[in-house]
Amino acid sequence: xxxxxxxxxxxxxxxxxxxxxxxxxxxxxxxxxxxxxxxxxxxxxxxxxxxxxxxxxxxxxxxxxxxxxxxxxxxxxxxxxxxxxxxxxxxxxxxxxxxxxxxxxxxxxxxxxxxxxxxxxxxxxxxxxxxxxxxxxxxxxxxxxxxxxxxxxxxxxxxxxx
Length: 162
What we know:
This protein has a domain at 16-126: Gcn5-related N-acetyltransferase (GNAT) (Aminopeptidase, 3-Layer(aba) Sandwich), CATH 3.40.630.30. Strand 6 (145-150) and strand 7 form a beta hairpin. Helix content is 28%, strand content 28%. It has a four-stranded antiparallel beta sheet with strand order 1-2-3-4, sandwiched between helices. Strands 5-7-6 form a three-stranded antiparallel beta sheet. The relative contact order is 0.16. The chain is of the alpha+beta class.
């Protein structure tokens, strides 16, 4: 059987997904990934991103960060947040900042992160989840639907969680 998202012939990756709050030693690397990948281009400071990740490790925060672990090593992260785009405040909640370390890509890690975020949202009673991306094909392969194209080839997508 071929696992979608994994290069044929590569051994399966043993990865677990958990709430980042259960792995405080991984907060800094997850925040660094977001800062380097997106934050710098938005003008955010590294300290601001780190502070938001620390806030998402609090049990009572509706926004949560997740971490993908290979053994005890963080290999990816994703967020479940209330809003990820100023022009689409009517939509909530959002899957955001899905990142997988380059050495662990194309092994199904992103798929596991997305499914964990979907389950978390479903478990708390959400009916759908939103995201925006430049690469919709990744999410379409996981049953997400394009609901709008905007800006410079960006795609607003959602998935029904029922």
